[in-house]
Automatic annotation (TrEMBL):
Source lineage: Eukaryota, Fungi, Dikarya, Basidiomycota, Agaricomycotina
Binding positions for substrate per the UniProt entry: 139
Entry coiled-coil feature ranges: none
One Gene Ontology cellular component: fungal-type vacuole
UniProt similarity note: Belongs to the glycosyl hydrolase 15 family.
KW Glycoprotein (keyword) present: yes
Pfam families assigned to the protein according to its UniProt record, in alphabetical order: CBM_20 (PF00686), Glyco_hydro_15 (PF00723)
The keyword Iron-sulfur is assigned to this record: no
The reaction(s) this protein catalyses: Hydrolysis of terminal (1->4)-linked alpha-D-glucose residues successively from non-reducing ends of the chains with release of beta-D-glucose
Name the record gives this protein: Glucoamylase
InterPro entries per record: 6-hairpin_glycosidase_sf, 6hp_glycosidase-like_sf, Carb-bd-like_fold, CBM20, GH15-like, Glucoamylase, Glucoamylase_active_site, Glucoamylase_SBD
Signal peptide span: 1-17
Keywords: Carbohydrate metabolism, Glycoprotein, Glycosidase, Hydrolase, Polysaccharide degradation, Signal
Ranges for domain CBM20: 472-571
């Protein structure tokens, strides 16, 4: 009798079964994932012994791979999830953890490291030792998403504190940390760096998207704190970044190419992660900011997911419009190249975010760009706007919900019985692989579960943005004139060299020649990155022989805007 009943219901019974499987998984895994996150945060997390207060270890795994470090990206994404829970009143116990995180980040910002000092690019350092000392081994550095993700997490906290009447704490303690990160983005967003997977040195969609977001919400916060000069500077560069962001779109293959370099297909979880971490329900399905339900982000999601259908054994036999296990990118070979929990969860989360917006606006739009995404579920669907009163709307909505749940069902299937989430699961048999108890895996399931329940994070101001008609790809620069008083002999010249790219990174062979228009004052005017500290010296070159000025190095910090003149004299 029961078998017959189920048989008659056909497909809908399996859909129902899947949704109750996922319900059960959400119920059992949520507390495990939450505990898994907290266990990896110092000083008292049960798996993070040795980590300073507020420090998130990537994983307790100390060999093969050794992840017992703290990455700014992982930590900031994890704390964004915790700060969202706290500020939305979903967990009021997290305040101490959040304040610990804030002070740990304030400390680590000041730690000189192989990427530089706090004012010469050091904020782009991807990872530190768990006692917050610098990690000095070889690594893919810098990685320029970290400061943006950290700023976004802390801005969410700052906005809540201000609404709670605690503006003075924000001004004295939170804002200085945020301001350094935003200043870093203003200066460096147009320079290349390593992608979120730490492999490709180029520009990267995820990095650009999260930089854009943080400057937008940073501008709003700066205004709230009364600094309109900084707010304008952030907005100017956010406009430029938004322009640049559009260039990742591949109009022929209809997806966002993950990296400007790297020589790969460009299909990458990078773009789904960017969509979920820049989700702003107030922006609807805006394609300029690649919102989760935008036609571009949905098309890109399909292209990305489809790239994994045939490369993993565990995906074989799965219908071409059903969920599959997904990894970082199809060419991945790290640890054998397997699906990752956090990337599979990101697909589900993007779809749940889309559903949040469709429910809110009461319509689904199908465009020529998103048509292939939607025809997966209904071959007859046509371009158009479907109001919530139509059956097309309800059919598509429930098909997308089923598709989304499918990704969590895959994670559920390959979660071991103790609920522990490692970094990867085997493409051959789904067993856990690579770093155990990856903090980011736990956070990624928690945010996907939240989105499934309809929780949407605070708006960051994505609504109503337009791409400026003319785009500038230069970071903010200031005009600096260097005057050096130096008596020279005929044939002898004065040059400038220093610690930043624009000053030739201490090279003597490519040092910058000063002019003699006002001899004996030698002079040169340069456009240098704003708000940047560097060291420099003048050198004399005569008959190929280089003579340096005496020590110590000269040091200077450029202003945030405008111009300046430095007057020095040979020593
Ligand atoms: C370690 C990095 O964390 C990982 O992302 C990368 O794939 C491997 N190194 C190989 O480069
Ligand atoms: C390797 C991943 O590719 C990278 O994104 C992450 O930050 C580190 N592992 C630490 O989890």
């Amino acid at each position: 009798m029961r078998a017959l009943f189920v048989y008659c219901l056909g497909l809908s019974a399996s859909v129902w079964a899947q949704s109750s499987t996922v319900d059960a998984y959400v119920a059992s895994e949520s507390p495990i994932a939450k505990a898994g996150v907290l266990a990896n945060i110092g000083p008292s997390g049960s798996k993070s012994s040795g980590a300073k207060a507020g420090v998130v270890i990537a994983s307790p795994s100390s060999t093969n791979p050794d992840y017992l470090y703290t990455w700014t990206r992982d930590s900031s994404l994890v704390f964004k999830a915790l700060i969202d829970q706290y500020t939305q009143g979903l967990d009021t116990t997290l305040r101490t953890e959040i304040d610990n995180f804030l002070s740990a980040e304030a400390t680590v910002q000041q730690v000189s490291n192989p990427s530089g000092t706090v004012s010469t690019g050091g904020l782009g350092e991807p990872k530190f030792n768990i006692d917050l000392s610098a990690f000095t081994g070889a690594w893919g550095r810098p990685q320029r998403d970290g400061p943006a993700l950290r700023a976004t997490a802390l801005i969410t906290y700052a906005n809540w504190l201000i609404a709670d009447g605690n503006t003075s704490y924000v001004s004295s303690t939170v804002w200085p940390v945020i301001e350094l990160d935003l200043g870093y983005i203003v200066t460096y967003w147009n320079q290349t760096g390593f992608d979120l997977w730490e492999e490709v040195d180029s520009s990267s969609f995820f990095t650009t998207a999260v930089q854009h977001r943080s400057l937008r919400e940073g501008a709003t916060l700066a205004t709230a704190l009364g600094d309109t000069t900084l707010a304008t500077q952030y907005t100017t560069q956010a406009d430029n970044i938004l322009c640049f962001l559009q260039s990742y779109w591949n109009p022929t293959s209809l997806f966002m190419t993950a990296n400007t370099g790297g020589g790969r297909s460009g299909k990458d979880a990078n773009t789904a992660l960017a969509s979920i971490h820049t989700f702003d329900a107030a922006a609807g399905c805006d394609a300029v900011t690649f919102q989760p339900c935008s036609d571009k982000a949905l098309s890109s999601l399909k292209v990305y997911v489809d790239a994994f259908r045939t490369i993993y054994t565990i995906n074989s036999g799965i219908a071409s419009n059903a969920a599959v296990a997904t990894g970082r990118y199809p060419e991945d070979s790290y640890m054998g190249g397997n699906p990752w929990y956090l990337t599979t969860a990101a697909v589900a989360e993007q779809l749940y975010d889309a559903i949040i917006v469709w429910n809110q606006t009461g319509s689904i739009e199908v465009t020529s760009t998103s048509l292939a995404f939607f025809t997966q579920f209904s071959s007859s669907v046509a371009i158009g706007v479907y109001d919530s009163s139509t059956t097309t709307y309800s059919d598509l909505l429930s098909a997308v919900k089923t598709f989304a749940d499918g990704f969590l069902a895959i994670i559920a299937e390959y979660t071991p019985s103790d609920g522990g989430l490692s970094e990867q699961y085997s493409k051959s048999d789904g067993s856990p692989l690579s770093a155990a108890d990856l903090t980011w895996s736990y956070a990624a399931t928690l945010t996907a579960f939240g989105a499934r329940a309809g929780v949407n994070p605070a708006s960051w101001g994505a609504s109503g943005l337009t791409v400026p008609s003319s785009c500038s790809t230069s970071g903010s620069t200031v005009s600096i004139t260097f005057n050096e008083y130096a008596i020279t002999v005929w044939g002898e010249n004065i040059y400038l060299t220093g610690s930043i790219d624009a000053l030739q990174d201490w090279s003597t062979s490519t040092a910058l020649l000063l002019n003699t228009d006002n001899y004996p004052t030698w002079s040169i005017t340069l456009n240098l990155p704003a708000s940047t500290t560097f060291q420099y010296k003048f050198i004399r070159i005569y008959n190929g022989v280089v003579t340096w000025e005496s020590d110590p190095n000269r040091e200077y910090t450029t202003p945030a805007s405008g111009s300046d003149t430095i007057n020095d004299s040979w020593r």
